[in-house]
Specification:
Blueprint (H helix, E strand, L loop, with lengths): L5 H19 L3 H17 L11 H11 L3 E4 L4 H10 L7 E4 L4 H10 L8 E4 L2 E4 L3 H6 L6
Parallel strand pairs: 1-2
Antiparallel strand pairs: 1-3, 3-4
Keywords: Membrane, Signal, Transmembrane, Transmembrane helix
Protein name: Glutaredoxin domain-containing protein
InterPro entries: Glutaredoxin (IPR002109), Thioredoxin-like_sf (IPR036249)
Length: 145
């Protein structure tokens, strides 16, 4: 779980250091502009942007019951972020599995990608799709959900 917060924490720390340097250098206005940028970058790269993750086994069980795709992702992945942002509100209708928090999810991704942990990997009806187009993923959602 801690690994998911390394990048956001580093971004906040770096932003704080840069802002402190600017304040000490006599540029508090620049510091006030720079720090929020780093905080925003930290937020975007944190697990907070994504819907709540569940375990791989639970996601597979739910997917079998409701037909919704399972998205395997990890914090800090720009392709996962792209998928999440482009899906918009539809993202909440998918089952999200953070592979850094769930070893079974990481194993599923490695099995689907020749041993690599390439994300996002979206499993639809038991078939994995690596880094699919967000519009295609949206089209895989059941219409009744």
């Amino acid at each position: 779980m801690m690994r998911a917060w390394i990048l956001p924490t580093l971004l906040v720390l770096c932003g704080s250091a840069v802002a402190a340097g600017l304040v000490l250098g006599g540029s508090p206005g620049e510091a006030a502009a720079v720090l929020p940028v780093f905080v925003l970058l930290a937020g975007v790269n944190s697990p907070l942007v994504f819907p709540r993750s569940i375990g791989a086994l639970e996601a597979e069980r739910r997917s079998a019951a409701d037909g919704r795709p399972v998205v395997y992702w990890r914090p800090g992945c720009k392709y996962c972020l792209r998928l999440r942002i482009r899906l918009g509100r539809s993202a909440r209708r998918l089952h999200w599995v953070d592979i850094w928090r769930d070893p079974a999810g990481a194993a599923t991704v490695r099995a689907a990608n020749g041993g690599d942990e390439t994300v996002p990997t979206v499993v639809v009806k038991g078939r994995p799709h690596t880094n699919p187009d967000p519009e295609w993923v949206r089209g895989q959602l059941p219409s009744s959900a």
